[in-house]
Design goal:
GO terms for molecular function: metal ion binding; UDP-2,3-diacylglucosamine hydrolase activity. The protein has 300 residues and is α/β, with parallel strands linked by helices. Helix content is 25%, strand content 21%. The chain contains 6 helices and 14 strands.
């Protein structure tokens, strides 16, 4: 576990070397260009290296900080306006300051009924979790959260107890195979444990045989394929990051889903699913072609 911390923080800090690489390339080019004056291929290689370098700089320092909002309408049989955020991964790659920016944007969205956090709240965090996640306390609307695999040692540190306490201290309601009823909206919300951590209890769905207006929060969208008789009106998920580094024809092979979920809205045999491409990063501190997103979901 310590090795995972070392590797991820090492990758994070060494990635800043990308910022000086253009200068190093220029110095190298200036020193050896006279030897390759009559070789066009040399100039092509230099241009290619510059383009790759600037693309990496963009994917490391620009796109991960472009927080977009996407609006979707879904027919569910109940009326609500939900803000869905997922996979902020506060820790090795994303900071508390990044989370502050997310919360500021969420609070500026009009007429929201409640906020859903669909797991993977952390990524090898260091320090007091209550402080790291303190921006959640500024949310103006009721907020409900489940854990993801990186919060549940699959992989990641086992921090469930500390994370639950931190969320509750920051006014976020933590749900793990638990439900609650929003009387003003006539909606039942069921938050499930994580699928990869083998902590999901889909038998909880059996308690809703005669219930209408059921919303499920499950970190991995693959969870829906473990539903049996009861099909919720809508399942909200994250986990996929939309591929995170969205290179055409390649990125889908890296999405952690056995059922070809990517991002966006799906209709499955076990009900409707909305998958957020999330906010954060894992593995490498890059996002390309899929900027961090806050999803605004209007149900009707």
């Amino acid at each position: 576990m310590i090795l995972h911390y070392i590797v991820n923080y090492f990758i994070n800090y060494t990635s800043f070397l990308l910022l000086i690489t253009p200068i190093l390339l220029f110095l190298l080019y200036s020193k050896i260009k006279d030897k390759f004056t009559n070789k066009p291929l040399f100039k092509i290689v230099v241009i290619f290296l510059y383009l790759i370098n600037f693309l990496l700089i963009y994917a490391r320092f620009v796109e991960p900080n472009i927080i977009v909002e996407k609006q979707t309408s879904i027919e569910t049989g109940f009326k609500s306006k939900i803000v869905l955020i997922s996979d902020p991964h506060i820790g090795a790659y994303n900071s508390t300051r990044f989370l502050e920016r997310v919360i500021e944007k969420v609070n500026n969205i009009d007429d929201v009924d409640f906020v859903v956090i669909a797991g993977d709240i952390t990524y090898y965090p260091i320090g007091d979790l209550t402080t790291l996640l303190s921006p959640f306390k500024n949310l103006k609307k009721p907020t409900y959260a489940v854990l993801g695999n990186h919060d549940s040692q699959a992989p990641g540190p086992y921090i469930e107890k500390e994370l639950k306490e931190a969320l509750e201290k920051n006014n976020v309601i933590f749900l793990k195979n638990e439900d609650l009823y929003l009387e003003n909206l006539d909606i039942h919300i069921l938050g499930l444990g994580d699928l990869l951590a083998e902590e999901v209890d889909t038998e909880k769905l059996d308690e809703f045989k005669d219930v209408e207006n059921l919303l499920v929060i499950a970190h991995s969208p693959d969870t829906v394929y473990s539903y049996e008789e009861i099909k919720p009106d809508l399942t909200l998920s994250g986990h996929t990051h939309g591929g995170q580094i969205r290179i055409p024809f390649i990125y889908k092979y890296f999405i952690p889903s056995d059922y070809d979920f990517d991002e966006g809205y799906y209709e499955t045999k076990n009900g409707k699913v909305f998958v957020s491409s999330g906010l954060g990063m894992t593995g490498l501190p890059f996002r390309l072609g899929i900027p961090p997103v806050i999803n605004i979901i209007e149900t009707y």
